[in-house]
C-alpha cells in the first residue's frame, strides 16, 4: 500500500470531505465528541464548528465557500459585520468561522468589524455602495475569464472562396422572412468577411420590413446589431485581421484626414460610403450575396447581419475586446448606443437637469439610463403602454405618464408635463417613437428659453414635422441624432470597455434568446 505521505492532503481532511457530500449520499446524523481541554482544539488544528457548518445546507455561505477550489475563487471577499448585531451575539452569525473555512481553500476574506452597528437596514445602506463596487468588479472579472475560456472559433479554411450558409431573406415588404441558403462571396479591397455570432433585433429592421423605409430594397438581408468574428479580409485591410471580434456599424468612420465629418467633433456622419450603402450595395457598387438561383440579394445598412456570414466595409468594423460576450455587446451596434449618445453627446445633459422621454422601447430605456448616469434629477417616462413603466422606473425614471389614458381631462401630454409635472417644461426631451405628433409634443414640453428636444425615432417615408414657429422663437431648440453621435470605430470599443468594467450594464435589455439564424 502507498504511504499516507503520498496521498493528497485533502483526502484525510474531514471538513473537505463532508463539504463534498451530496444530499443523497449522507447519513441522517454524524456524531462528534470533542474534548474541551484538547490541545489540538485550542491551537486551532481541530475546528469542529467549521466541520459542522461545512456539513450544513446548500444555502450556507460557509459550506459554499468551503467548496471553492483555488482556481474558482476571487482575489478577495468583503464582509462587513456590525459589532452590535444580535445575530452575532447569539451565535447565528459566525464571520470568523466563515473566514477560517475560506482560508482552507486559500480564499482571501476581508472582514471589517463595524463598531456600533446592528443588523438594521441603516447598516446595510451605509455600506452597500462599497459592496456593489467591490464585488461587481470581481464578478465581471470572473465573467471575462469565462468568456475567454469559451471563445467561439472561426474557420478560416474558406479564405478566398465562396461560403454557402443560412440567412433570413426579406423577399418583399410585409412578407415573412425566409430562411434560405445564400452564397457569400469573399471580401474585396477594403472589405471584411465575418461570421455572425449574435444578432439583436432593432425596430429599424421591422420598419424596413413593413415597407416604411424609403431606402428599403428587396430581396435583402436585414440586421445591423451584431457581434461578429473576422473570418477573412480583402486587400488593403489593416485595422482588423482574422480572429478579431467586431461590432458592425451602420454609421461608418473612414478617419481620412480630408473627411471633414470624421475630423470634426461635432458629428459622426461620415459620408464615405453613404451613396452605395443606401442602394443596398458594397462600396464598389456590387453585392456579395446571391441566392440559390444565383440572383443577387441586397445589403442592408451596410451590415446584413441576419445571416451566418456577411461582408462589411472595413470602415464599418469596430474592433472590440475579445473578452466581451458577443451576445450582449451586439446591443452597442445601434439602439442602446443611440439612446446613451443622444443624452451624452447630442444634448450633453447636465447634473440636476429635468428630462422627458417619449417611447419606452430599448432606445427610450437607454435614454433613461444615460440620463440617470449623467445625474438628471427628474426623469419623466412617457408611453401608451403601462406594461413598460416598471422597466422605466428600474432604469431611473422618477415619474411615469400614460399619455393614452392617464392625462387630466382637457390636457395634452405637453401641457401636463409643462404645467403640472414642471412649471416651465423640461430641460431636455427625447422622442424615441418615430411618430411626428409625438415629436411635436416632445418639443412643446421643453423648457421655455432653453429647452432642447432631440428626435431619435425614424419617421415613416413622407411624414413631416410641424409646430408653431413661436415655440422656437421662445428659445426651444429642435435637434436630431443618428447613432447618438458616437463614432463607430472610436467609440464603440470604449462602450464595450465600460461594460466589461461593470460601469455600463446592458443585460437588462435582453428579454428573449433564440438559437440559430432560422429563429430570427
Estimate the strand proportion: 15-25%
Task: Supply Rg.
Answer: 29 Å
Q: List how many beta strands DSSP finds.
A: 18
Main sheet makeup? 6 strands, parallel
Structural class: alpha/beta
User: How many alpha or pi helices?
Assistant: 18
Q: Tell me the helix content.
A: 25-40%
- What's the arrangement of strands in the largest beta sheet? 15-14-13-16-17-18
* Overall outline: globular
Low-confidence stretches: 1-7
Mean of the pLDDT scores?
91
* Intertermini distance: 62 Å
Structural commentary:
The chain has 520 residues and is α/β, with parallel strands linked by helices. 28% of the residues lie in helices and 18% in strands. The chain is built from 18 helices and 18 strands. The chain has helices at 14-19, 39-42, 48-54, 61-66, 86-89, 95-103, 121-149, 203-209, 260-263, 274-277, 326-329, 335-346, 362-374, 389-395, 413-417, 436-444, 469-473, 488-500, and strands at 77-82, 109-114, 163-170, 178-184, 191-200, 220-221, 225-233, 245-248, 289-290, 296-297, 309-313, 317-320, 354-358, 378-383, 399-402, 428-431, 452-455, 477-480. Strands 15-14-13-16-17-18 form a 6-stranded parallel beta sheet, with helices on both faces. A 5-stranded antiparallel beta sheet has the order 6-3-4-9-10, with no helix packed on it. A 5-stranded antiparallel beta sheet has the order 11-5-7-8-12. The longest helix has 29 residues, at 121-149. It is globular and about 90 Å long. Mean pLDDT is 91; it is low at 1-7.
Amino acid at each position: 500500500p502507498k504511504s499516507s505521505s503520498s496521498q493528497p492532503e485533502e483526502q484525510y481532511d474531514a471538513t473537505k470531505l463532508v463539504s463534498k457530500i451530496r444530499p443523497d449520499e449522507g447519513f441522517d446524523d454524524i456524531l462528534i465528541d470533542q474534548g474541551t481541554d484538547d490541545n489540538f482544539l485550542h491551537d486551532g488544528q481541530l475546528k469542529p464548528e467549521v466541520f459542522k457548518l461545512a456539513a450544513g445546507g446548500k444555502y450556507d455561505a460557509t459550506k459554499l465557500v468551503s467548496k471553492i477550489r483555488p482556481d474558482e475563487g476571487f482575489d478577495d471577499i468583503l464582509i462587513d459585520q456590525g459589532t452590535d448585531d444580535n445575530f452575532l451575539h447569539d451565535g447565528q452569525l459566525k464571520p470568523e468561522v466563515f473566514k477560517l473555512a475560506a482560508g482552507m481553500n486559500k480564499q482571501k476574506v476581508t472582514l471589517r468589524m463595524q463598531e456600533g452597528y446592528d443588523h438594521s437596514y441603516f447598516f446595510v445602506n451605509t455600506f452597500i455602495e462599497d459592496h456593489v463596487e467591490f464585488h461587481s468588479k470581481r464578478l465581471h472579472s470572473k465573467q471575462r475569464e469565462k468568456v475567454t475560456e469559451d471563445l467561439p472559433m472561426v474557420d478560416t479554411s474558406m479564405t478566398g472562396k465562396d461560403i454557402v450558409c443560412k440567412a433570413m431573406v426579406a423577399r418583399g415588404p410585409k412578407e415573412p422572412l425566409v430562411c434560405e441558403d445564400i452564397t457569400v462571396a469573399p471580401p474585396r479591397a477594403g472589405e471584411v468577411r465575418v461570421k455572425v455570432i449574435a444578432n439583436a433585433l432593432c425596430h429599424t429592421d421591422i420598419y424596413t420590413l413593413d415597407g416604411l423605409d424609403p431606402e428599403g430594397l428587396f430581396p435583402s438581408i436585414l440586421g445591423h446589431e451584431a457581434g461578429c468574428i473576422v473570418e477573412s479580409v480583402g486587400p488593403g485591410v489593416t485595422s482588423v485581421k482574422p480572429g478579431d471580434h467586431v461590432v458592425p456599424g451602420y454609421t461608418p468612420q473612414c478617419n481620412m484626414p480630408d473627411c471633414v465629418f470624421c475630423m470634426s467633433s461635432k458629428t459622426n456622419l461620415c459620408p464615405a460610403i453613404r451613396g452605395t450603402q443606401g442602394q443596398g450595395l458594397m462600396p464598389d457598387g456590387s453585392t456579395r450575396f446571391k441566392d440559390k438561383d444565383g440572383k443577387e440579394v441586397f445589403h442592408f445598412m451596410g451590415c446584413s447581419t441576419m445571416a451566418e456570414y456577411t461582408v462589411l466595409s472595413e470602415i464599418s468594423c469596430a474592433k472590440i475586446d475579445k473578452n466581451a460576450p458577443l451576445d450582449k455587446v451586439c446591443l452597442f451596434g445601434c439602439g442602446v448606443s443611440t439612446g446613451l449618445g443622444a443624452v451624452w453627446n447630442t444634448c450633453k445633459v447636465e447634473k440636476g437637469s429635468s428630462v422627458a422621454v417619449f417611447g419606452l422601447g430599448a432606445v427610450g430605456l437607454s435614454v433613461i439610463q444615460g440620463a440617470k448616469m449623467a445625474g438628471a434629477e427628474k426623469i419623466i417616462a412617457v408611453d401608451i403602454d403601462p406594461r413598460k413603466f416598471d422597466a422605466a422606473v428600474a432604469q431611473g425614471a422618477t415619474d411615469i405618464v400614460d399619455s393614452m389614458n392617464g392625462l387630466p381631462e382637457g390636457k395634452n401630454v405637453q401641457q401636463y408635463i409643462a404645467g403640472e409635472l414642471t412649471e416651465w417644461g423640461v430641460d431636455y426631451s427625447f422622442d424615441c417613437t418615430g411618430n411626428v405628433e409625438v415629436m411635436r409634443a416632445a418639443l412643446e414640453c421643453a423648457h421655455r428659453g432653453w429647452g432642447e428636444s432631440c428626435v431619435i425615432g425614424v419617421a415613416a417615408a413622407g411624414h413631416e414635422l410641424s409646430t408653431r414657429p413661436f415655440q422656437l422663437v421662445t428659445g426651444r431648440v429642435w435637434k436630431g441624432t443618428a447613432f447618438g453621435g458616437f463614432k463607430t470605430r472610436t467609440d464603440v470599443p470604449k462602450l464595450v470597455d465600460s461594460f466589461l468594467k461593470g460601469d455600463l450594464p446592458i443585460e437588462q435589455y435582453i428579454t428573449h434568446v433564440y438559437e440559430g439564424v432560422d429563429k430570427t
